[in-house]
Specification:
The chain has 16 helices and eight strands. By secondary structure, it is α/β, with parallel strands linked by helices.
């Protein structure tokens, strides 16, 4: 099985936080060259410049025979491309074609489609590269995730003897783009479909980014999930801002027209809000910010059902996560009142894993996950009669 190098260091590629994070993401996950991200960072002025500059990086890499970086630069180009731009789906199709038919064509990747409602959930299975299977792991992302961008994670665990199944639920990747299934907070439903399709139980379940919320929702209702790993948990999205801001936002929901006007203003002046609101409407299949935001209200403490999570739990949190404040980590840990065990791992600036999903030291995060899985599985086997 292929191996990836995970560089250590959260780099300063760009002065805008969200742009800098995205440039770091592809580098930290083992797909991009540092010098390419530095060059792109110097050229990008706003998110409006992003697409053409990242496509330029992709074309250059492909011309030089650097298939993996070139492939992921097309994914990067797609990221800030607005849903109204016809290039968004073209860039996605280019990325998918390059990923499966060129960059990783010789890798042992099994693509799948799990029947779900009136469409399909897109999946990828990566079998153990060892002669034995030490365990099975299911992985999914969150708000903006494709399974392909988590391939370096799957390869890492495959090389350690685990079979890994990645899937895109409603609102994600192919499941959204090709089968039109919008985001839902009821993640136990796609979880059940995946577990049924692959006929697996006693599984370690990993949720990345918003997946850190979704994985607890799934675990609360699905006993076949035995161990849960959440990276960058949110707990309740309406509790992320300070209390006065939350109260003001709730009041605005009584005035949809004002809510939409304010959202348009935020999208005009703030790059992260522009990306976030447009993408939220896209993955929820709603036509305006108000309707999309109402879907997000479902991602709350009550619907999470943390008190029903009875598994062993590992929570990974960057102490300077620019999306999710540290207080959400504390709230989530306190809410897991019936978990079999709860292990917390806070990543600091000194470790360079201090940001969202441990971008900056993803390799350390994977090592922490692996060590914990081994301990949790050993503890479980030791207690069997």
């Amino acid at each position: 099985m292929r191996t990836f190098d995970f560089p250590v260091g959260y780099e300063h590629f760009h002065p805008t936080t969200i742009v800098n994070y995205q440039l770091n993401r592809w580098y930290s996950f083992g797909y991009a060259r540092k010098e390419d991200m530095q060059e792109a960072g110097k050229q990008i002025k706003t998110t409006d410049d992003w697409k053409q500059i990242m496509v330029r990086q992709a074309e250059k890499a492909m011309q030089e025979g650097r298939l993996i970086p070139g492939t992921f630069y097309y994914r990067a180009a797609e990221f800030f491309t607005l849903p109204s731009d016809p290039d968004k789906i073209k860039l996605y199709d280019t990325f998918i074609d390059l990923f499966y038919h060129h960059a990783f064509a010789t890798d042992r990747i099994e693509r799948g489609l799990v029947p779900y409602q009136d469409g399909f959930l897109s999946t990828m299975r990566v079998r153990s590269s060892l002669n034995k299977v030490r365990g099975k792991i299911v992985v999914h992302g969150g708000f903006d995730s494709f399974i392909e961008e988590l391939y370096s994670l799957a390869a890492y665990f495959s090389n350690e003897g685990y079979e890994v199944i990645l899937f895109e639920g409603p609102g994600q990747g192919t499941t959204l783009k090709k089968y039109g299934l919008p985001l839902t907070h009821e993640w136990e439903k796609p979880a059940k479909a995946v577990l049924d399709y692959y006929e697996i139980d006693d599984v370690t379940w990993i949720g990345i980014s918003m997946g850190g919320w979704l994985c607890f929702r799934a675990a609360a209702f699905e006993p076949r999930i035995r161990r849960v790993i959440a990276s960058s948990i949110a707990f309740d999205y309406m509790q992320i801002p300070p209390s006065p801001v939350t109260a003001f936002a709730r009041a605005l929901f009584r005035y949809p027209s004002i809510m939409n006007i304010l959202a348009e203003w935020k999208m005009k002046w703030f790059p992260q809000e522009k990306w976030g609101i447009h993408n939220l409407m896209y993955i929820t299949k709603k036509s305006n910010p108000m309707e999309a935001s109402q879907i997000m209200l479902n991602f709350n403490e009550e619907n999470l059902h943390s008190d029903q999570v009875k598994q062993d739990v590992l929570i990974l949190t960057g102490v300077e996560d620019h999306f999710i404040p540290l207080k959400m980590h504390v709230k989530q840990v306190q809410a897991l009142t019936h978990a079999k065990s709860v292990t917390e791992r806070l990543f600091t600036r000194e470790e360079q894993g201090h940001n969202h999903c441990q971008v900056g030291n993803f390799g350390l995060a994977l090592q922490v996950m692996l060590d914990w899985i081994k301990r949790a599985a050993y503890s479980c086997n030791k207690k069997k009669p």
